[in-house]
# Entry
Amino acid sequence: MKLPKFMNAVIMTAAITMGGSAVQAQQAGGSMVFLVQPEPPTMAGYVSTSGPIGLLGPKIYDGLFDYDNDGKMIPVLAESYDTSADGKTVTFNLRKGVTWHDGKPFTSADVQFTIMEVLKKVHPRGPNSFKEVSSIDTPDAHTAVFNLDNPAPYMMRALSSYESPMVPKHHLEGQDIKSAKLANNPVGTGPFKFTEWKKGQYIRLDKNDNYWKEGRPYIDRIVGRFVPDASTRAAAMEKGEVLYAAYNAIANIDAVRLEKRDDISVTTDGYSMINPMALLEFNTKEGPFTDAAVRRAISTAIDRQFMIDTIFFGYGNPATSALSSNFAATGLHAEMPHYPANGDVAAANKILDDAGYKKDSDGVRLKGTLDLIPYGEDWRRAGEYLKQAMGDIGIDLELRYEDVPTWLKRIYHNYDFQMNLNYFYQLSDPVLGVHRHYGTNMIRKGTHFVNSSRYSNADLDALLGAGMTEPDAEKRSAIYLDIQNILAEDMPVVNLFELEFLTVYNTKLKGAYGSAMGAYASFGDAYLD
Amino acid sequence: MNRSSKILRYVGKRLLQGIPIILAIVVMNFFLLNLAEGDAVDVLAGEAGSATPEYMAEMRKKFGLDQPLPVQLAVYLKNVVSLDLGYSFRHDMPVTKLIVDRFWPTLLLMVSTIILAVSFGILLGLYAAVNLNTWKDAMISVFALITYATPLFWVGLMMIIMFSIKNDWFPTSGMENIAAFYEGFDRVKDIAHHLVLPTITLSLFYLALYTRMMRASMLEQYGQDYVVTARAKGLTERRITFVHVLRNALLPVVTMAGVQVGALIGGSVIVESVFAWPGLGMLAFESLFARDLNLLLGIFLLSSALVVAVNLIVDVIYCFLDPRIEVT
# Structure
């Protein structure tokens, strides 16, 4: 019964595809090999937001919307949406004629299941993104009505295929979602189908001939290659064996060298939805940094521009507030005091003098330990700079560099640290990426990348709550101004600089840069010249 | 009792002795690995960005990590005895399948390295010994010293720069051309092409070892009484070297090569990393940082079993090479 219908769909789509290819200027065909570093544990983007999964998942799964570089929503599986006047009902009109890679149709039941049973329950960030969604109605196969307890404007920024991939109900229903077979055998609606995973070597995706978008994708095959050694990755890029490397898979030091070649370009586009921020977390409950004045002095003393220029080869922007300047577009960013770009050692020393921290005979006021995020050499260099900069204001730091599990346990479970160098994704809205760092409800022992400072401030909590549900842009902007002021005074976290990740690519590859999701996009429009 | 049944009995005895050794290794590894802070759930949750404590507790329960250590060990041993190496929760795959997939590339690299290193090592050592204290000997000794002392990762990277980027002779890394996906004989050729640089890099280190060993071993044999006897008999130097001295000098080199087969199973993490060769060494390295203990224990189990087996084989080969050595 099912087969003839499926065959029909194949023939129809094939006809459309062929019709489409007659008019397109882009070349179809070819293999696109790119770097995936490190090898992902699984391909279950609906369970884990781990970086390498993000590089592959969105090629296989679609989201409801994508976002262009100006933040405008691009229809993907949803063609449009309507928000009711009170902001508590959002109706998504779904695309018709979309099929999963196994041939079954994509319907509103999949959307309902994905949000309510998968993302809200097992996704690391889904419970926040869809916190207000109490139920989803499916009046017909192509309409999904989200019923919200409170307006949730930030939810509309979390609908990309990376953040919220739509998954097939018929492969997950009635199973333990975290251990379902789908994790290693993904079935999506995206432009590429999963074909093969050779552990330690590559993941191969082949063109989805039934893709809903006419004439897409152009490329026949996408292969994600795993190369553990950074210098070899640079060599493979130089030789043209791989065409694309995002998220600093090619280290900055190699990127600036490769950029001089005619066939290789470097871009910092494609990370605005990620908004990475380098920062220092402080233990505000015990140890030498419990006094906000000390933390303000530390923030004042750091030469942020120097760190960017010498360690990160000029890629980055000094932080000027608890929020990234990328939020300025939505009015959620303001420059704050104690954030000098070039560091002001005299002012920092004065803050400490005024606060009563005397230097001893060796010129030391305080001793402490700085933990370093174990994600590579750059962070060790940054730690070495910080040790020296803190020495200038009489804070004697010892550096500690451990492996990932040990470090995570120390910072987020045992709270056995004083000062920690780290970076956080601020994501597309402060509610999604920043609230977790400061809210009292985000002091969660054992949960990673939340409020490890154990900073708790009732006024701030109230403002964070208000910022979450306020639909009016101007009022929201005022709320976040207050939030930034409080954080610039208390500084449980000192932001260092807005990281700029680099994407290094071969100029043969075109059309892979149209989405704000960057490397976490579908590559349906990419083609090889 | 005749010789072959004696050997069979010996092999049986050694195999029986091997079982408690391997089990002891497993138990020791188990406790050693559990000394490390953090577990697989910490890593998985850390990579995922943020995860709720409930989610992490649930995962620990699913992985069996909420059980006390002795219980975990008992479960693991029970599985091992029934030849089930368990499940890698990180990879969502049975450990046996993961290991077998990575075993062939390791074997390929290992065997070609051993062959290259041993044969060239023997040749160079022999040549150096024959030309003792001439410039040829000095050159070979210096070469061996340099290759032995140079860090492998640097040699690997220089190989890539010289033979892959400056001269487009070999691919930089990987085991296959994954833009092409060759089939049949083309695939064999492709894999061989990819094998060249990693094999040479890894061989250089062992080559130096065998060269020096062979040279020393030759010189030692030259000083033996039987050589004096041979000379007195009026044999040519050529015959003495190739027929008498060489055969005896080979013994220690072959022994050493046998022992190193076991060590090479773990692979060279550095060479695998530099050339993105999908071997067991890299898998072990990665699973250590991911605290994927089931997988790590599986790899250790395999390599300990292989070391036991190879040692046994070497012992048996001994008594064929040198009839004076007897098994008991």
Observations:
- The beta strands of chain B are 87-88, 93-94.
- Chain B has a mean pLDDT of 85.
